[in-house]
Amino acid sequence: MAWEYSEKTKQLFMDAVQGKPGTHLGEIKDPDGMGEHGSIACGDSMRFTFRVERHPTDPAKDVITDARYLTFGCTSAIAASEALCALIERGHYTPIEALKIQNKDIVEYLEGLPDQKIHCSVMGAEALEAAVFNWAQKRGVDLAALGIDIHPDEQNEGRIVCKCFSLTEPYLKRKIKELNLRTIPEITNAVKAGGACMSCHHVPGGLQDLLDEVWGADAKHPAPLKILPNIRMPDDTEIPTPGDGNGEVLSPYHFSKQVEKALDDYVRPMLKRDGGDVEIVDIKGTLVYCRFQGACAGCAGAAQTMTMMIERPLKDMVDERIRVIQV
Amino acid sequence: MSLVYADNNATTRVAPEVFDAMAPFFKEEYFNPSSMYDPAREVAHAVAKARRDVAQHLGGIDAKQILFTSCATESNNTAIFGAVRANPRRRHVITTAVEHPAVLGVCKDLQREGLDVTFLPVDAEGNLDVGRFIRALRPDTLLVTIMHANNETGVVFPVAELARITKETDPAIVFHTDATQSMGKIPIDLAGQYSHVDMLSFSGHKLHAPKGVGAMFLRRGTPCRPFMIGGHQEEGRRAGTENVPYIVGLARAVTLAAETHDEDMVRIGRMRDRLEGSLLEKISHLQINGGGSPRLPNTSNLSCHYIEGEGMLFELSAAGICASSGSACTSGSLEPSHVLLAMNVPFTAVHGSIRFSLSRYNTEEDVDRIVEVFPRVVANLRNMSPYWDQAKNRPRDDADKAAAPRPA
């Protein structure tokens, strides 16, 4: 997939990578607010920190003066991090005002993002939100009292819908509403849910069900894929079951014991004289899979030895239908 | 700035010799090889010669066993669906977890149709366990399809041996191998060492022929229903008017690869080893995926811990270097490479993979450029990674625990 990034996105990424002045790479020591989002296992993550100028009496009026990020992720994830910091510094926001920055503001600042990269901008908005909550806790600001939904514990208590990215039902429902997501691909582009194994798309309680619950069921959406049951044909077994030659059937246990015994008594002593040995890899019916060891491994006459010195005695002593296959 | 093209496992440049061989068939020799007049017979002869040339370089086999297709994906589809449909009594297929999507996707489709498919796992170095393979063989197994060399890591599977074991266990099982990456890089003798392989697929554009042409070897007597149905071309085994210029180009490319094989592979292998050696020296926390296994001489799959591959590609591209990555951001899905996941590459490194793949047109200067640029790219991105201690220039102490689910 070729890159279809805007010039602005590319420019921000290259500036950040080269550490040009005016970029926001880094981490603030003892920050006033710190938020993280994503994880290395999911493919992208961001640590966002900011410093405020403290208001002498009302912490709610602190103003963000410095914003920094460290980001593990692709080009657009890094550009989105850069955009977030630039937006915040440009606005001279209080942390509470900064919460108004949505992922679409980041996309706008970047002059557009490819659909499948929208989640990079969502990651920025999420890290910002987490950092503001962290600041509120430190400064004793009661966000709930100010009418801000801090959706506590939704990640810890909700049922996990997307196992690949461990995203819960309350989180996904909130995001579906907040970002106005109408289809499964839109959910995947925005928050990655359902983007890896895809098993949560059409199962009961899966993404389609969440969409239906939030927006009301849409009669037009396609019926879930039907998984056909495994159809097995009757086994036409071609590998004979071992017997003792008198019509009596040997159990796999006794058969392999007899093969081992024959090898120990007659075959291995001969091989060992030449500094070699043989190992049984597996036995299936009357097929015996053997691997040469020591001097026999790699010997030019290995194939012949297999037949003459191993298969022949086993046929004579255990079962004439035995075939030895070299591994 | 000249371009350093190190993505030859994705596609290759058309060799000038190949282009020259193709050219007459666009403007002058444009006839349909199925037509009756003399000029068309000339064209039919060119296709027949191309078929003989390809057969010659696959061990001097009878040329009638070579079919021309549009790409390796078509060859794989033809082989797998063809074998399954020709043998409805059996319902089990064996493949590996690291196949190219053109095989993996087809096998998953078979699963949806109700067949049993065994996906053999690989170890941390990308190798198959032969004992496990033997255990997977069942009385109702109809097809084994295992790639020759992996497109991402270059790890080579012992296909000749696996084919022999398969056929000695049960001659009715069909053995197919996808040799797209190994064609032209590893000699394949279908009359000798590889005589137990029933079907083999490859395409032209991995060995300096153009895109849009592939071939398939179908051993005489192997049950296989046609996939493309229509005209009598390829004796009814693959309908559709022959893509004459491309078929001629493919044959020329195969011949060219055989002529230069020994010299090329030694030189390319030396460049690859120097590239890996220099990068290992300059970059810490770097691992070679599949480095402990038999590998194609041209492929190097590296993982840089704690950074993400797409950013690396972007920076390399800005410096005029083309490579590819198995990171989630480049895969089109949100999951990183299935090959690296199957090899259990640690989660700190699976998103930070990069693949350099060389060809005969790469030079020592190309390697120098990569060795000069790539360590800088890695340092830049680590400088912005939340898992890297920028002051001490090493991973943070808590970086290994970074796999915790994302915080709300």
Walk me through what this model shows.
- The complex is a heterodimer of chains A (327) and B (408).
- Chain A has three domains: 7-148, Sufe protein. Chain: A (Alpha-Beta Complex), CATH 3.90.1010; 155-218, no CATH class; 252-326, 2-Layer Sandwich (GMP Synthetase, Chain A, domain 3), CATH 3.30.300.
- Chain A has eleven helices and eight strands.
- Chain A has helices at residues 7-17, 75-91, 95-98, 103-109, 118-139, 154-157, 169-178, 184-191, 207-215, 252-273, 302-317; strands at 33-39, 44-53, 63-72, 160-162, 167-168, 276-284, 287-294, 323-326.
- A three-stranded antiparallel sheet of chain A has the order 1-2-3. Chain A has a three-stranded mixed sheet with strand order 6-7-8.
- The longest helix of chain A has 22 residues, at 118-139.
- In chain B, the strands form four sheets. A seven-stranded mixed sheet of chain B has the order 2-8-7-6-5-3-4, sandwiched between helices.
- In chain B, 39% of the residues lie in helices and 14% in strands.
- Chain B has 13 helices and 14 strands.
- Chain B is globular.
- The model of chain B is unreliable at 403-408 (pLDDT under 50).
- Chain B has two domains: 16-257, Aspartate Aminotransferase, domain 2, CATH 3.40.640; 261-403, Aspartate Aminotransferase, domain 1.
- The chains are: A alpha+beta (327), B alpha/beta (408).
- Chains A and B meet through helix 1, strand 1, strand 2, strand 3 and helix 2 of A and helix 6, helix 7, helix 9, helix 10 and helix 13 of B.
In short:
The complex is a heterodimer of chains A (327) and B (408). Chain A has helices at 7-17, 75-91, 95-98, 103-109, 118-139, 154-157, 169-178, 184-191, 207-215, 252-273, 302-317, and strands spanning 33-39, 44-53, 63-72, 160-162, 167-168, 276-284, 287-294, 323-326.
Brief descriptors of the model:
heterodimer, A: 327 residues, alpha+beta, Sufe protein. Chain: A, GMP Synthetase, Chain A, domain 3, elongated, B: 408 residues, alpha/beta, Aspartate Aminotransferase, domain 2, Aspartate Aminotransferase, domain 1, 2 domains, seven-stranded mixed sheet, three-stranded antiparallel sheet, 13 helices, 39% helix, globular, disordered C terminus
